[in-house]
């Protein structure tokens, strides 16, 4: 890392993994940064500061989380002026957390390791889908504009399917058996065609039996701890190039089913951020520390 | 974790959802069934503004110290959520429990500025409470108002069950105890409670006073309806601030608040008697906190908040007697803890410039003066003891020290203001610019100096020597602003001068609310019905709605604006005893007309009446 401040005292870098859940899902990324800056000061961690008239804490976050999304795979890197025993740092930070933020791990980084943001290659999610109370949405799987129903060629059957087979079938056609998933990606400046297929590393619907096993760690509820009817598991390309959000995938998935985008309540929960080990396999951003 | 009052789809559709979820660091959570009184404490403006207010944090901490009271916070939902709450019929809720305000025992609303009046109605309306106190039932919370606008609560009197006049630290316990004992003895009805509450010092129950008007529209009489209701309501004043509760663990918002820093209140009141300034009058006498107390608070709050900045709060920090010691302490303490120091409202002199050099980046900051008037004559009229020597001397020092930006604040429309007085403002700006070019050699300059003059239009306020003064129609204010602007363009250094002025319509409205009587309430209600809301926000303020409301209610704005009141007129706020005698105010009004200055409280007591409180500068 380039050393901007030549007089800077030597520092150690640490990576913190935290969970964000419950009502905290409505606190935005910038507000979370400001929250942690204060929490670190209250915790009395020996954080390093930049130079200048208004020094700021040396801290960087990996991949901002959208509003409304919960997570147990948030990471931030900080620099400390001296080492603190990790268990002690976790304890001190957790004493300063709001209800809905919890520090899960604290590890020191080897000198030359990449910053968290630069290391991110993929993100894994669980997405809960819930049928709105009082109305079965699957009958909303309605005829497309061209008269074709749903996404298949046999729309009438489609429309009568119960929730789970409907989505299982839909997923097979949309993802598993599709050669490509071409979408138009709009940015402020341009529009471009993009094939989602190679950027979706995993997209599956959990079996009924698996459902509970798939629930995120005990004290990290998905969206207020609601139970959902279906749980999808996704691993998506993430980072500075080709950052694919689960919302985007679902919006195209729903469209392919001929279902209105907001017909179901989706609860998105990020499970982890992933990087690649030297063998090219995905590993957790937290585990990767030792490998680099 | 509590369930939220708003569903995910609502929270995902509104701006800054974190305004509505509570759960902030240092918020206080209690089990509603463990307490006897639920108090919803409201600042009727958007969260970021309301969360920046010290008074709310003081009361929040103080109320919650009682185990029988659970005090929660409420702010104005922003316009986007306002629409959703109305459309979907969702009642307004308090942040901590996320439960509806209408189920509380009290709804306390702080009244910090007149332009929040329609927001009060928004709070009542969204809470599904009757807007008029007279229409509320036993099931509704008691709506109580406090804060500076209670020094003339009459325009909003119909919307409140009671007002608390003065500093909140003193009588809330008595009010709560009365409420609890009447409930316990089964003696409680809304009416009976209000009748007895009116006997607590500082409590004003508008429904217990009869108001009559003379043919010319002025007040004919203002009197209590019953013998046991006091004719005068006495402002409550804390004499020992060191002993008063202070929120050393303030609630820290997730959303960035306007005041995103530690606020250290160093004193209350002001020793100077600027004649336009309501705060300088109604917070008398000036009372300081001791240096030891402030050191303790500062250390503690740096620990408990994690804020990166600390700011001193008072009306005029330069007048704090131990300022050098306090500032030096903060510089030492804060450097070690990496906390920045912000020092607003310091008078510019050698000391403050020296301090500012240590704590700020001078390239980024500008020097601020508030001469309030351009000519010495006018400054004498308003009793602003800032002389041309102070301004030029301070500027010269600052220019030598490396500053090149100066901000100057003035008022237009002051009593007796002439065109020459107005023109003196850009002339003063020009003189400061010349001084820069004379003081700083060419090779040391980084471009031009920048002198920004900013004017607000003067609004006469109750309990000031100018409470009798007239105002002007909006067109006249704009003429004055234009005269200033035109004169500026004639100045030698015009390229170094900038001028900004405020809206004139808002000024006129503020003037009507500041000195209005109960008849103005109907207009506020009408305007709210027409959609007026967030009037303090220029992007929402719509004069057309107000003009319609005045016309529909048959209330003539000119009656409140254009008249200079005779000194013996019965004024709507005369029933309040602020400790400042009307004789003193009259004397000051006369002296103003003669251009005579009055010494500050430290130099010489001018017998305003506040000595009776038994503390502060009067005994210094
Ligand atoms: S110095 Fe003057 S304007 Fe400022 S607070 Fe004191 S009285 Fe008011
Ligand atoms: S009584 Fe005298 S010293 Fe005290 S506030 Fe009034 S003028 Fe100032």
Class by helix and strand content of chain A?
alpha+beta
How many alpha or pi helices of chain B? 20
Per CATH, the class of one domain in chain B reads Alpha Beta
Strand content of chain A: 25-35%
What proportion of the residues of chain B is helical, as a percent range? 25-40%
CATH superfamily of one domain in chain B: Cobalamin-binding domain
Number of helices of chain A: 6
Q: Percent helix among the residues of chain A?
A: 10-25%
How far is the first residue's CA from the last residue's CA of chain A?
Answer: 15 Å
The poorly predicted ranges of chain B are none
Percentage of β-strand residues of chain B = 5-15%
Enter the CATH topology name of one domain in chain B: Rossmann fold
Question: Brief description of this entry?
Answer:
The complex is a heterodimer of chains A (292) and B (620). Chain A has helices at 29-43, 86-94, 116-119, 155-160, 163-176, 246-257; strands at 12-20, 59-61, 70-80, 101-108, 122-130, 182-186, 191-195, 200-205, 230-237, 265-276, 282-284.
Can you walk me through this structure?
The complex is a heterodimer of chains A (292) and B (620). Chain A is an alpha+beta fold and 292 residues long. In chain A, strands 1, 2, 3, 4, 5, 8, 9, 10 and 11 form a 9-stranded mixed β-sheet that branches. Chain A has 2 domains: 6-116, Alpha-Beta Plaits (2-Layer Sandwich), CATH 3.30.70; 122-290, no CATH class. The two termini of chain A are 15 Å apart. Chain A has 6 helices and 11 strands. The longest helix of chain B has 21 residues, at 419-439. Chain B starts with 7 loop residues before the first helix and ends in a 26-residue tail after the last helix. Among the domains of chain B are: 8-234, 3-Layer(aba) Sandwich (Rossmann fold), CATH 3.40.50.280; 261-360 and 580-620, Transcription Regulator spoIIAA (2-Layer Sandwich), CATH 3.30.750.210. Chain B contains 20 helices and 19 strands. Chain B is of the alpha/beta class. The interface between A and B is medium-sized, with 31 and 34 residues. The complex binds iron/sulfur cluster (2 copies).
